[in-house]
Specification:
2 domains; binds zinc ion; 12 helices; four-stranded antiparallel sheet; nine-stranded mixed sheet
Length: about 425
């Protein structure tokens, strides 16, 4: 039997707005950098709220917090929910925060109705998701999933030279639990979409099937510096002209695999960058993304082929290397089904979608069945103080999170 449990939308909204004051900015956003005084304050608040619901709160050695509400079966693996409470330096009120506070609203609802799930329920606040103080992003979930070692994370320094280990110590946020020893029956992360699709299509809930693969390439095109007035056209080796044609080719490669592919040149250095010198060398970054690694392989091969086709007739040489890559992630079909069922039970339409951004869930998918739930954000704007999600959409996301967790709990019990 499906229990009839309903979250309190006003309580969720008030919690979002009240906690947004911790690190609140004059433009309506939040500045809550990892392990800052503001981060410590919101963590203390989070602990108090969870303990008031009878949860036990544990913290691991990289500061990640786990609030646990016991179920009927003490042997069962917990069903986890969560996201992050840290923000960008000029962050919004919803990125990450919604996933944690909606999880808190789920726990409050279960508590108010005195409803016991079969499995324990855990709510997680991952440390340093944003990566703006300590790079890379998703650091603690990455350590949890084995993408980085604890020592690698500890050694990372912020711009002031303070290491992650020192910041954990100084803020009092370092716990004692070894990282990555916890096991989950599943992990659900609710998040704003950070893109425009749901709003544009008028759909409330995104059932996220995975995270797209991302590949970054460094390309250097090498020609020859020469006088713009004295060098005839047929003798030029214009590196910027070659780069321009490659930029156009990158756009065409992405269009050839649309709508799921995207390709961008967003960074470029033109050398020597002088009005009367034909550019002798251009360095630029290519960003290719797709949900399917096989398609990314095809796109990469196309990039290499276009370099070889376009540059030699212009008298140009080149170097191309992979700077960074993040493999595509496929989320767990059983959990995705629970999101669809949960949305249907709550009366919302869903749309399958692939996340264009990285999330803690992308790492956790390596060690536990995982999925995400997206809700719309105004104009698709995020990592911005103007980031905005509506009262109704936040409530819808929290209700679907609750329904999905309960649906999964019934499946595990049955
Ligand atoms: Zn986030």
């Amino acid at each position: 039997m499906r229990p009839n449990l309903t979250i309190d939308p006003q309580r969720l909204w008030d919690t979002l707005m009240d906690t947004a004051r911790i690190g609140g900015t004059s433009k309506g956003g939040i500045r809550r950098l990892t392990l800052s005084e503001e981060d410590r304050q919101v963590r203390d608040w989070f602990r108090t709220q969870c303990e008031a619901l009878g949860c036990t709160v544990a913290t691991d050695e990289v500061g990640t917090m786990f609030a646990r509400r016991e179920g009927r079966d003490p042997q069962a693996l917990p069903i986890a929910m969560g996201s992050h409470l840290d923000t960008q330096p000029t962050g919004g009120k919803f990125d990450g925060v919604l996933g944690v506070l909606a999880g808190l609203e789920v726990l409050r609802t279960l508590h108010d109705m005195d409803y016991r799930t079969q499995a324990p329920i855990e709510l997680i606040n991952w440390t340093n998701e944003e990566g703006s103080r300590f790079s890379p992003a998703m650091l603690a979930s990455g350590v949890f999933a084995g993408a980085f070692t604890r020592e690698e994370a500890y050694a990372i320094r912020d711009r002031d030279g303070i290491s992650f280990a020192e910041a954990l110590e100084a803020s009092g946020c370092r716990g004692t639990e070894p990282v990555g020893e916890r096991r989950f029956a599943g992990f659900f992360e609710l998040h704003i979409e950070q893109g425009p699709i749901l709003e544009k299509e008028g759909v409330t809930i995104g059932a996220v099937t995975g995270v797209q693969g991302m590949r970054w390439y460094d390309v250097t095109v090498i020609g020859q510096d020469a006088h713009t007035g004295a060098t005839p056209m047929y003798l030029r080796k214009n590196a910027l002209l070659g780069a321009a044609r490659i930029i156009d080719a990158v756009d065409a490669i992405a269009h050839a695999h649309a709508p799921d592919a995207v390709g961008t040149v967003g960074y470029l250095e033109n050398r020597p960058n002088s009005r009367n010198v034909i550019p002798g060398e251009v360095f630029f970054g290519v960003d290719l993304r797709h949900r399917d690694e096989a398609v990314l392989d095809v796109m990469q091969a196309a990039l290499e082929a276009e370099l070889a086709r376009i540059l030699p007739p212009l008298g140009l040489e080149w170097r191309c290397s992979t700077l960074w890559s993040s493999p595509a992630v496929a989320f767990d079909p059983r959990l995705i089904d629970c999101v669809r069922e949960g949305a249907a039970a709550a009366g919302y339409a869903t749309r399958d979608m692939v996340s264009g951004a990285g999330h803690d869930a992308a790492y956790i998918a390596r060690v536990a069945p995982t999925t995400m739930i997206f809700v719309p954000c105004a104009g698709g704007i995020s990592h911005n103080e103007a980031e905005s999600a509506s009262f109704d959409d936040c409530a819808a996301g929290a209700q679907v999170l609750l329904e999905a967790v309960l649906a999964y709990d019934r499946k595990l019990a049955g």
